Structures are given as structure tokens and as C-alpha cells.
Amino acid sequence: MANISSDREPAGRAASEAAGAGAGPVRTTSFVAPVLLRTDLPREAALRYWAGPHAEIVGRSPNMVEYVQRPFSPTDHGYWPSSPTVGTAVPEGWRCDGVAEVRFASTAALLAMPLLMREVYLDEQNVFERVLGQLTHPGGGRWWTDGHHDAVGHRTVLLLRRRQGVGGRAFRAYVHHRIGPALHAAGARDLRTYTFLPWSRLVHPTPGVSHDNPAFRRYQGCAVIGTGSRTAMAELLESPQVAGIVADQHTVLTAAHAYTVERSVPVIRARRTRTRSCR
């Protein structure tokens, strides 16, 4: 069985060292998959299978630097500050049950994954109803913090939907150069931002699992935000830095859906790899 923590797992050492040395956020090539659990299984049984037998299968992959399961609270969501035309309430009919967050050593390692994933794909039907796998661009993720995970008692995953008419480059700049720095300055103790390649169901061709992802429901980016507690997260959301994001988020986003991470399951703890920082 994979190790399940309340929401306190070790940081990626390489990311921690680079960020701690003042090199700026570390670029990652990553895969983020929002998932919906099977509704015909008891929720706790599905979560146990995800963190147990399924995690053991995925954990045998040699190409992943890190693989963390982040199941969401079924009740604590939709609390990102709202603004006109930006939806922050999570639709009941499209409420995710968690995300799988994966980091690869390189783009080449990512491209080799389909050859290694048959067993994983076949097992997903045992636990998931829908898997919405999203790849980042090469280097399309950012790790912002130096890994003070011992002080992280709460995490929020913020799923972001790009406004139609806003170009991909402008969206990526907003996520990595506005949202990331603002949350970092506001005091996030753990922070990762991701922007995704255009959606394709071919990225995750799991048999027996739905991959339907209508355009008006898709997410093009996300942030993983760690704080000392849920109360500290609420205080961060009231900070001047977050107020600055909220004031202009309508120019880039149509939705910002916040979910509390119920617990984190670090199936593959971050392995050492050469990283490239960015400014």
C-alpha cells in the first residue's frame, strides 16, 4: 500500500535546492489528471484502491520523477474569491474527486510512457469513471518553493479555465508571471503552477473509462497551493496579492475552481534529477 499522509509529503529535493538557492522557480514537464471516481463504488473503497493496488502498478514506472495522488474533499471547494464573469462555484455535475500529479525527468521520458502504461490503463477501469489527463508543454510547470513541507498542513488545487479569445501565450504568462508570483509573495509554503497543452483524449486512451471533456468544462491550467492550515489558506485568499489577481482575472479566465486536498499520497517521491530554473 502506498504511504498516505494527512497532506504532508517530502518536497522534491532538486526543486527545493534550486528554489532555496534563489535560482527562481524550477521548470518541470508534468502531467496533471483530474479524475472522477466510479459512482457505483463506495467512495472510501475507491480511494483505498486508488492509493493501494492502482498506486502499486503506477509506482513501477521508471520514467516518473514524482507521482502524487491528491484526493479532494467532497465538501470543501469553490472558495476562490469571485469576480464578475469568473465562475468560482464548482458545478455539482462536474465536481472532480482529485488529481494525479506526475513529474517526468525529461520530454523524452514522457514520450516513452505509452509503451509502459498498458497495465496502468487497464487498471483504471477498476476505480475511475472519468480521467481528464492534461500534459504540460515541455517545461510548462513551475515549482516555486523550497519545500518546507513539514509546515504544510493544507493544500488547495486551483483549476483554471482560459477565456476564449485569450491566446495560449497570454494565458501561460498570466499563470506563471501573475498568479505564481502573487501566491508566492502572499506566503504560500508550497506552490506549483502548471499550464497545459491543448486537450486531446489520445493523451490518456484508457479502455472502459470516459474521457469526454466538453470545451466549456475544460481546464487549461492549475495551481497547487500549500499553507500551514485551512485557516492560513483563508488568510492568504484575503491578502492584497490575491486581491490583485482577482481584480483582473476576468481578462484571462472564465473559471477558477478551488478544491481542498483531503490528503496527499506520495506514490513516487521526487527522485533526484537535473533541473532548469527560470526567472
Give your account of this protein's structure.
- The protein has an 8-stranded antiparallel barrel, surrounded by 4 helices.
- It is built from 7 helices and 11 strands.
- The model is unreliable at 1-22 and 271-279 (pLDDT under 50).
- The longest helix has 19 residues, at 168-186.
- The chain has 279 residues and is α+β, with helices and mostly antiparallel strands.
- It starts with 12 loop residues before the first helix and ends with a strand.
Describe the structure using short key phrases.
279 residues; alpha+beta; 8-stranded antiparallel β-barrel; 7 helices; 11 strands; 30% strand; disordered C terminus
What's this, in brief?
Helix content is 25%, strand content 30%. By secondary structure, it is α+β, with helices and mostly antiparallel strands.
Topology:
Elements: H1 13-20, E1 26-37, H2 43-58, E2 64-77, E3 98-104, H3 107-111, H4 118-123, E4 128-131, E5 134-143, E6 154-162, H5 168-186, E7 190-196, E8 221-227, H6 230-237, H7 240-248, E9 253-261, E10 265-268, E11 276-277
Antiparallel strand pairs: 1-3, 1-4, 1-5, 1-11, 2-3, 2-9, 2-10, 5-7, 6-8, 6-9, 7-8
Helix pairs in contact: 5-7
